[in-house]
Amino acid sequence: MLAKAGPALFLGIELAVDQIRATIVDESLELVGIESVDFDSELPEYQTQGGIFTTPGDAYTTPVEMWIKGLDTLLQKLHRSYDLGRIKCIGGAAQHAIVWWKSTTIPSLSSLDPHVPLHAHFPVTSFSLPNTPVAQDTSSHSHAIGIEGLMGGPDSMARRVGTCANDSLVAAQLLRVRETWPQDVWARTGRLQLASAFLASLICGKWIPMGEADACASGMWVHSANPAANGQGHWEEGILDIVGGSREEGRRVRGWLGDVDVSGGGRRAGNVSRYLVDRYGFDPETVVTPFMSDYLSSYLSLCPSPSDAVLSFGPMDALLTPAQHYNPTRLFNLYPHPAQDPSEKRRYIAVLRSINGDVPRALVRDMYTKSWSAFDRLVAIVPPGGSIGLDDKLFSFWFLSSDSHPFQHVKGIYRFETGIKATEFRDLRANPRCLIESQVMSFRVRWAKMLATGVLGSRKSTTATPTPTPPPTNSRPISASLGVTFDPYDHSTLPTRIICTGAAANFPSISNLVGDVFNAPIYIPTTQVDSAQVAPHRNSPAPGYPSRAALGAAYVARWVWGKQSQWALGGSGGLAYEDEIRRLLGKRWVVSGQTPLKTNIGGQTTKALSTGSGSGTNTPFGGPRGIGNTVFREEEEEELLLDADGVPKSPTVPFTLSVPSLFPRLRTQTGSTADTVTSGSSGPTASTAFTTPDLSLSGVVPNTPTPLTPVTALPTGDNEQQLGLAKVAEADVDAFMSYAALVPEFCRLEGMLVKAVV
């Protein structure tokens, strides 16, 4: 246990899908402590897999009682290992999910018996919906589309509430519960809380309203900057009436949701509860900040600059970037910055999402390579576009779940060779690379469209990288000549630096490909780089390593405490969040003699030799269960590629490789993988907090896998090292030009899918 007396400490708590985690930092933001509770292994009585239940109909739910028991266990671990009386401020983050409280009397949060654990105060009977849908749930897709239609379409809805239809909308999940669940679930409900506000309420011992960023993600909130709001944010009555089914029920839903905290997140939400003071020894003066969604907390932990972008890989991939103006459209989601003071100029975060993230990657691994090491090597050595030739490039689009606009009605796997739809590529080895290219290029195209709306302000790069010379054209603008709305050869409007998180970023080939498509250096948090040496296939951090969401919550706690201290002394409250975090880390860098930030507390520092079926079960980045895990089958195994009739055949090889021994035999799609294609699904949310269903095949005993060799740090500048970032890939202007040449055809094919031409 840490000494009873000592410097101030700051606690960040993250309620993720698979775990509940805690990170402690000191005043200089140095890592001091880490604890976690794994729901599957430490609370086995709930029988979850990756913290969730899966049911037919793309439904993914989780027991709320398990969250509370997990919080009990986490606080007990912290109490045994640390002096919680030194904690000066607590921040928090949680997955995007709803808690359905019953309307019946429940124990007062402010007068709980400290001799009784929290989960005994709030048993399963406290909730009208004991197992709540998580953000991964896609069963409310049709309800989201229905709400969008009744609001006048995606443009009209986005102008009103800042977002168009997506499966994770609280509004869509509420509507689904009313229409498809037993009527008594709706009738017995008395209060609704997002998981972030629910967690904050348990810590504070009083009801805490949701933050404005979370409200904007609900699909029911009109932001104060919206001209229709007249300067005052409010719940959208039209959508409430749709959700409730009548004006009266809409007003009832409004009462369930309660008020929204529009302070900006820079002020205290309250103090720690008397229950936690008496039971675990917290200081009664400990401040509690407003809690937020986990993907926003992860974003804050990276402290991005105005010209940066954060690419978060996970079950749902997301690209986040600072935005200067509130200009919502159907092209992206726009949220108020969750850590700003009301006195600051309003700032926002623009988010591009793709539901189809980890699941297609895991499916392609299972279908074509059998291991992540082989997947990474194929992505690395196959040429851009899947072929050396200039006119026979390959494209693929993997929509295992319908995505947000404009892909609401697109579902399936689509491949194209020489512009013509193909059932399968002639060379199966192109599939991993073409999948990753499609996922990353989609973000690159959507970035250009988002930039054109003006929401990001001016994004002209000031770097010294020379602008490539595009192919010669006539006097028309190059975008018109190529049939696109932007110049794909102009990298000056792209991010000058991309910070990647999530297990996919641990793959050297994927990090390099992102840098090529965006012509930007790629950085990864040093905590993730070191964690990847232990467990490269997991979105969740290895034991002893902090999660980004918990770390971001601790950073916010330190920032809010500093502001409170300055206000107490009559000061102005200090700097904006990012400026203050950079100041603290810069000061620590100097005082410590340029010592890098700690990346773990007692964590393993050598790579695990086996990453088989038991590793990373909470994400698809573990070895697939029941499937061979070797990089590729050895020649002597006589494992032939089969055609549709089961007749052996040889793959066509459109390009020559210098390492032919890598590819002695390949396997095409089998019956079991075909079943996986139709059943695989994923839901939205970024972040390390989400899990993905196991897409394994069956009937084959796994072999010892060849571990993936994850990314390692390149020489990194002091500014990035201070923030705990490591460069893992450089920009390559020649590679960027190669991808710029593919953009027009990519856009044409994507447009054909949207228009249902193919």
TrEMBL record:
Its cellular-component GO annotations read: cytosol
| Sorted UniProt keywords | Kinase, Transferase
What is the annotated signal peptide range for this record? none
Where are stretches of biased composition, namely Low complexity?
676-693
Where does the record place the region Disordered?
A: 458-479, 601-624, 670-709
Q: Tell me which family the UniProt entry assigns to this protein.
A: Belongs to the FGGY kinase family.
Residue ranges annotated as compositionally biased, kind Polar residues, are 601-620
What organism is listed for this UniProt entry?
Schizophyllum amplum
Which GO terms fall under biological process for this protein? xylulose metabolic process
Tell me the protein's name.
Answer: Actin-like ATPase domain-containing protein
List, alphabetically, the Gene3D superfamilies matched: 3.30.420.40
GO molecular function annotation: D-xylulokinase activity
Q: Is the keyword Kinase assigned to this protein? A: yes
